[in-house]
Design a protein that fits this description.
The chain is an all-alpha fold and about 230 residues long. It has helices spanning about 1-35, 50, 60-80, 100-110, 115-120, 130-140, 145-160, 160-175, 180-190, 195-210, 215-230. It has one domain: Serine Threonine Protein Phosphatase 5, Tetratricopeptide repeat, CATH 1.25.40. Helix 4 packs parallel to helix 6 (about 130-140) and helix 5 (about 115-120) runs parallel beside helix 11.
């Protein structure tokens, strides 16, 4: 009888999990259709604060769904814009839903580093202040992760805030396990923050410190543009 009860309980749990996954898949499909019609994606999403901790400990799984949805969302926007899209200024894409998606993912799983990394590279070209807010949120939730200081320093650099970028890299360099390039970049940013050499190194550091292929692609493209610009001089 106990074994039968266990199987029954396990079966119910499986059904619930499958139901959540199916609902998430359906929601993503509906979101895609709404995006094509120009409607708001955020309005159709569950409020992350409300569902956090309330679905059988599956916060991490739902955070992944929000994360994948954010990649689909911005990817569709860039593809629709065509090859002439300016990756340094994506405001024309009207991708206002990217931050809410990344914010929801990191609310459900505050220690999920990928959304913070992606936000550091892409969000400055859409909404710089939201990019700063997301990076600072990452540091609050993961103060021992030196990569998050790298992300925030990168955003400050993108915005031309070289003193803030240098100070952020310096803070990150003091964290246990931080690589030597953090302190080196702090010094270079203080001395030559706006140079093309620093720009190339910043994007190279992004490539070397992420496993996300989309982030690598964006950073690699920027290095090619920098090299092209230098070769034309």
């Amino acid at each position: 009888m106990k074994q039968s009860g266990f199987k029954s309980g396990f079966g119910i749990a499986v059904v619930i999990v499958v139901g959540i996954l199916c609902a998430a898949r359906l929601g993503a499909t509906m979101d895609a259709e709404r995006t094509l019609r120009g409607e708001s994606v955020t309005k159709s999403l569950f409020a992350a604060e409300r569902i956090k901790g309330s679905v059988l400990g599956l916060d991490g799984l739902i955070a992944d769904i929000y994360w994948m949805r954010s990649l689909q969302y911005i990817g569709a926007k860039i593809v629709a814009a065509g090859p002439e899209v300016n990756i340094d200024d994506l405001r024309g894409l009207e991708a206002n839903e990217l931050h809410p998606l990344l914010d929801a993912s990191t609310t459900l799983d505050p220690h999920f580093l990928a959304p913070y990394s992606y936000g550091a590279v892409v969000l400055p070209a859409i909404d710089p202040q939201k990019a700063v807010e997301l990076a600072e949120k990452g540091i609050r939730n993961n103060p021992g992760e030196w990569r998050l200081y790298q992300h925030l320093g990168f955003i400050h650099w993108k915005l031309g805030r070289f003193a803030e970028a240098s100070a952020t890299y310096r803070r990150g360099s003091e964290i246990e396990g931080a690589p030597p390039f953090m302190s080196l970049m702090a010094a270079r940013l203080a001395d030559e923050g706006g140079s093309s050499a620093v720009a190339r190194q910043m994007y190279l550091d992004v490539i070397n410190n992420t496993s996300d292929l989309q982030i690598k692609s964006v950073a690699s493209r920027r290095i090619l543009e920098i090299d092209r610009s230098e070769g034309a001089r």
